[in-house]
Amino acid sequence: xxxxxxxxxxxxxxxxxxxxxxxxxxxxxxxxxxxxxxxxxxxxxxxxxxxxxxxxxxxxxxxxxxxxxxxxxxxxxxxxxxxxxxxxxxxxxxxxxxxxxxxxxxxxxxxxxxxxxxxxxxxxxxxxxxxxxxxxxxxxxxxxxxxxxxxxxxxxxxxxxxxxxxxxxxxx
Amino acid sequence: xxxxxxxxxxxxxxxxxxxxxxxxxxxxxxxxxxxxxxxxxxxxxxxxxxxxxxxxxxxxxxxxxxxxxxxxxxxxxxxxxxxxxxxxxxxxxxxxxxxxxxxxxxxxxxxxxxxxxxxxxxxxxxxxxxxxxxxxxxxxxxxxxxxxxxxxxxxxxxxxxxxxxxxxxxxxxxxxxxxxxxxxxxxxxxxxxxxxxxxxxxxxxxxxxxxxxxxxxxxxxxxxxxxxxxxxxxxxxxxxxxxxxxxxxxxxxxxxxxxxxxxxxxxxxxxxxxxxxxxxxxxxxxxxxxxxxxxxxxxxxxxxxxxxxxxxxxxxxxxxxxxxxxxxxxxxxxxxxxxxxxxxxxxxxxxxxxxxxxxxxxxxxxxxxxxxxxxxxxxxxxxxxxxxxxxxxxxxxxxxxxxxxxxxxxxxxxxxxxxxxxxx
Lengths: 172, 424
Fold this sequence. Notes:
The complex is a heterodimer.
Chain A lengths: L8 H19 L3 H5 L2 E10 L12 E6 H11 L12 E13 L6 E12 L11 E15 L2 E11 L14
Parallel strand pairs in A: 1-6
Antiparallel strand pairs in A: 1-2, 3-4, 4-5, 5-6
Chain B lengths: L6 H4 L14 E3 L1 H4 L1 H12 L4 E5 L8 E7 L2 E7 L5 E5 L14 E3 L3 E2 L6 E2 L5 E3 L23 E5 L2 E5 L7 H5 L2 H9 L7 E13 L3 H7 L6 H4 L1 H10 L1 H4 L9 E5 L2 E8 L2 H7 L2 H21 E7 L3 E4 L2 E9 L2 E11 L4 H15 L6 H14 L7 E3 L8 E2 L5 E3 L5 H15 L3
Antiparallel strand pairs in B: 1-19, 2-11, 3-4, 3-6, 4-5, 7-8, 8-9, 10-11, 12-18, 13-14, 13-21, 14-15, 15-16, 16-17, 17-18, 20-21
Helix pairs in contact in B: 10-11
């Protein structure tokens, strides 16, 4: 793959800060505020088995339109999503952020590395009382809105998408 | 003198393991003792018919799938003549497993250690550097990969048995075949494609039988999956109320197989859910009444000992240790169905059964906690007597209960006891 044209430093910084803020909202469990970052036609997509399968022909781990994402968030707050009672603590760590902008549509593509650290304490299940890591290569599509962005695509290609994945009920 | 039975004593007597289970209850030891898992492998997994794959997973000559019968690694292959083989995945020289990928294609299996080369049916073609072997040192027939003695299939579901003797697959499947037909006859062509549309894998820290019991669990849905039901109720209230159809049943099909009916839709809702062209295609093969029955009834079918057909998946259960189990859910597409129908199957499987689904992960949480609770070894019993006193038997000899009774879990253990008693 050719080295993409570098975005201007100011744009790169703006996108990075946006993505860092997004990660903080998830890790702080401020899901209502997180939901507002998405466009109405957004797709939150975590492919299963391979990074580039066609989600109309193949199952995914997450394939949420905005309405479905609302259901997911509701469920996590219901107290009856047992796989997340107690809820996991997460830390979404981003790096290797590379930004390009479509000159016609102005849509921004941000590719990055994501490592999700996840810890779920459950004193019944000490065998699982450990920090899990879920490294992934991500692709965001962002639309400039006012002086910020909205997310139209949040694609997370876990390197272990074809692995034995346990409880991924937390927000990936 | 009447001494109460000391079940913990029975648990250390291999010729009496089958006495640890009864219709009402199972003794804790069958879930926690490694020796009993060893006995299950020898007496169940290595004697009876075990599901290894679907022929749609290996469509072309040279295709193979790596899988297991119990702990034994095997390869399900399609040879150059188009025939399905199941061979033990072990080089006959020094014992390596041959194929590092789960699914692949190759003309020959070539061992990377010394180059021994085998056909898909296990035939040893040549050793590596054969000039280094003298006359009489290599018997190519004896050193071909070991074929699993019996291989057969029904509607594309391939089963294999490590025992050369025993009842036929047809006899073994018995009354499960009708329900396997229902599963496949949703397709206008009467065939399905497995795994091409993906699969999920998970483990839980619990005994394999917990997942077998948990695959036909009508009782827990209202509790464990209340969030799923609430979301579904909001979206499709007309459909979701049919989870409570009073005509639905849980059925012991015999030979350890069992089924629960999870949902039954009336014809008008079948018409609402499925496009007309698709319904007509299905009806052409199975008749109109058959079409309404098949498309309207959601069933979870367990085929003893290691596979379940439910909704849009083939679920395969593999014991890794007495307290650790691997489960794979292979998604299936209906051949010949419109894209909208198959996409609905894809989305539905993700929504419930995926690792971020709204159902499956909560079940896994239950399983993990069960095995944790089993550490209280002084509490000896796990109960399966729900509905036992009102269970009926129909004209076909099937035990019947409601789907939220434990008729179906009891069904598994009639066969378990029979196979565990067969050898000492």
